[in-house]
Amino acid sequence: MKILNLHVQKFRGIVDINLNLNGENAVIFGPNGVGKSAVVDAVDFLLRGEVSRLTGEGTGDVSTAKHGPHIGNQPEEAKITAIIQSISGKTFTVERTVAQKDKVTIDPAFSSDFNDMVAYAQSGAHCLARRELLHYILTTPATRSQQIQMLLDIADTKTVRDAFTKLKKTAAGNLKDATDSLKRYSSDLRIKVGAGSDDQLLGNINSLRAVLGGNALASLDESSFTNGLLYSDTKENTEIASCIRNLEELDKYIPTLQPVLQEKLQNVQDTVQKIENENTSIENINYISLIKSGLALLDGTGRCPLCLHEWASEDELRQILQERKEKSESLSAQLDTYQNSMTNLLSEFSTYKTKIGILPQQLKKWDNGCVAELENRLKSIATISFQDNNVFKNFKKVQELVDTIIKQSSDTLLDLIQKQLVVLRPLMDENSKIKSDAWQALNAANELFIKIEELNKTLPTIKSAAEKSIFLLETYDASQAAVLNELFTSISDRFTEFYKAMHIDDEKDFSAVLNNDGAAVNMSVDFYGQGQFPPMAFHSEGHQDSMGIALFFALMEKLTTSESGLVVLDDVVMSVDIEHRKNFCRLLKKFFPERQFIITTHDTVWAKNLVNEGVVERKNSIQFLYWNITEGPVMVVGQDVWNTSRAKAEVDLHGASAFFRREMECFFENVCDKLHARVRYNNVHKWDYGQYMNAAYKELQDLIKKAEQQARDFKNTEALDKLGSLSSTLKTQISAVSADNLVTNALIHFNPDYEISKSEFLAAVDALEQFCHSFECSKCNATLSATYTGENPVSLMCKCGSYAYPLKQ
Amino acid sequence: MDEQTIQDKIKTTFMNAVSGSSKFSEDEINGIVTTISSSLKADKMAESILKSIGGTADEDT
């Protein structure tokens, strides 16, 4: 996606500006507070419906909705309109207002083209601001990881991994539940029919069938255990038999309850004792993840990542954190044991409740005091809540309740049960009771057998799902590691390549290593062959900025959208010196010729460099001169230095002269650079316009001479004529410029004794305009440049090839 | 510029490994790929995959 035209109205300090960018690179420059960043905000808002600077951490009550419109304007008036060209060449208009920031109007509707760009912008890859460089370089490995994950749009892979983790846990839980249930049902089945082992099941079931006059089954799965049996009894007999069975079971169970509870409570108490002996607060458990993160965040500087305390030795800090982590993990394991033993203790109360069951209702007809006692028992255990009892802090409460129950005498209940049985037993004859018990046992056994059969059928699937879940998680981890390792190797390589492109002169052997280590992205860089260090360890601020840019580009390149054409660079090279900025220009041209960069800067010289180096066409050099609340930014587009100087002279001659001097100094500095001109050295490394101009003139004449000698050798008369003409034009022009030099110098130094007239100034502008054009190709407007082999100039060139003169060696 | 997103690359690598493992039927593979490509939250995603691979526990258990 490229922006052909950007129209910003009543938005973030802009009243109304219209930028014809034609899908090409642009530089927006001017002093602080003139509205440059508002253009960045406008592009951001157009793509995302939000302004990054007004959202997120630290923005408080500030919001795009409230603070997006230019002050005094309504949200519906704040509007960004852009004519956009997609990578496939489609052109469409996109419009968004602050009033309806979630709605974007596209005409004609090529929604998918724009949506791809929006998705790309959501990751933040459309814009790099200087403050964001810090997130890549001067940061901890974990923060860097988060930033990179967001940019690469891989944060969502965590969701899938979390799903597989949850899946593994659930499937393992299901398998355990199914296995436990199978064991329990099998045990209950054996108890129900009085079998000591599975081998005795068939025999015992057939014995019960025989009681009811049934034939023997050949196998358990042949048919229902009650198949072919004819059994019936009165309702009352059935109820009496059920009461007797339940009372007899309870009678056997009650004496075992207290020792079992005592043993289970002891297990819990032992675990509690161990936890208390750990000499670590339970609250420390909550810090496990914090401590783990802290360990991951250690970056070799010896600084605590949380409180920023500087430790004399990082090893000491690491050891302390490691010890705390191990202590917390040990405590966590003890708590797991506690929870298991507490669950085991509390499950006994469930069994107790089940054993009492519906006896209080069943016994009402024949009650002799047993019902009230049973209800009291149920009431006493009902006070033990079965929710959250495994939370450690509730231990004392549970312990008190269990102690009370253990101390309760069983004698009264056991006595009442016996008396109740004495009442019930004579109510039905022994034979009927035996038959009823057999019938009940066969039915209950049959029900359990069906459950066992069903579980045996589903268990292989449940087991297989648990195995598959383990496989899925392991495979996902392996896939993620393989892709990310390859990705980070590739990012390391491109990062190194980009950084070296910017620092080819001083760090040609630079190397870097980025690796993904779980929640952290570690980064180390070579420092002049002295070893690998964290990027903030030895490199200067300027070098760190270059690293931030290189890493951003390396990451940006990995984004897959085909619509990722636009990149906004908001004041990103401020700590980079002029030589490396030129390399940065070459980097943009060499590696990203197809992208559209919108670059903002407050540095006029950098803006000129971008034009002179061919990154930005002069027509897309946009200067924001000043700002006021009623007009917003006042700008000059594609500044024509000559006409601008003439126009300025009409209103402010001294202002015009200062502007003109700066422009000329900038122009001739660039010419000197292109021609490799020799400016007389000084140790303050500062040269003025006159020094640059004279050096540029002399160098071009020398190069023309060498080119003429070569043309003469090859009898190239056409070249000889053209070069001769250029040389004599330059000679004539330098005379005129020198005649005006006094004027220009007086202007430069604001000589109070020299009152310049407007006509003198305009004459100087005219003379210099002619002279400057002689250093440019009339066809491509590029500044002439000399190419070198080693220390020797070999050709005089322009960009389009109109100038391509070999030089005599 | 890469042709696939990083997420897609991970998914493709993962699904290739799953498909080549002979542990899963075609229906299971389809179920997994549909689920991990969806916008479900992790919990629901896990539930859906478990259903696909037949590991849903019987309520009685």
Architecture overview:
- The complex is a heterodimer of chains A (809) and B (61).
- Among the domains of chain A are: 1-125 and 561-633, 3-Layer(aba) Sandwich (Rossmann fold), CATH 3.40.50.300; 659-806, Four Helix Bundle (Hemerythrin (Met), subunit A) (Up-down Bundle).
- Chain A has 25 helices and 17 strands.
- In chain A, 36% of the residues are buried.
- Chain A is elongated, with a radius of gyration of 44 Å.
- By secondary structure, chain B is mainly alpha-helical.
- Chain B has a domain at 28-52.
- Chain B has helices at residues 6-19, 26-36, 42-52.
- In chain B, helix 1 runs antiparallel to helix 2 and helix 2 (26-36) runs antiparallel to helix 3 (42-52).
- The longest helix of chain B has 14 residues, at 6-19.
- Chain B is flat.
- Chains A and B meet through helix 6 and helix 15 of A and helix 1, helix 2 and helix 3 of B.
Task: Give a quick precis of the structure.
The complex is a heterodimer of chains A (about 800) and B (about 60). Chain A has about 800 residues and is an alpha+beta fold.
Question: Which key features would you list for this structure?
Answer:
heterodimer; A: 809 residues; alpha+beta; Rossmann fold; Four Helix Bundle (Hemerythrin (Met), subunit A); 5-stranded antiparallel beta sheet; 25 helices; B: 61 residues; mainly alpha; 3 helices; 59% helix; 0% strand; flat
Record the SSE blueprint.
The complex is a heterodimer of chains A (809) and B (61).
Chain A: E1 2-11, E2 14-20, E3 26-29, H1 36-48, H2 64-67, E4 79-85, E5 91-97, E6 105-107, H3 111-122, E7 127-129, H4 130-136, H5 141-152, H6 157-193, H7 201-211, H8 235-277, H9 288-297, H10 314-356, H11 359-362, H12 370-382, H13 395-407, H14 411-424, H15 430-502, E8 512-517, E9 520-526, E10 532-533, H16 535-538, H17 541-556, E11 566-570, H18 578-591, E12 596-601, H19 604-612, E13 621-628, E14 632-637, H20 641-651, H21 653-675, H22 689-713, H23 717-739, H24 741-749, H25 758-773, E15 785-789, E16 792-797, E17 804-806
Parallel strand pairs in A: 3-12, 3-13, 7-11, 11-12
Antiparallel strand pairs in A: 1-2, 1-4, 4-5, 5-6, 8-9, 9-10, 13-14, 15-16, 16-17
Chain B: H1 6-19, H2 26-36, H3 42-52
Helix pairs in contact in B: 1-2, 2-3
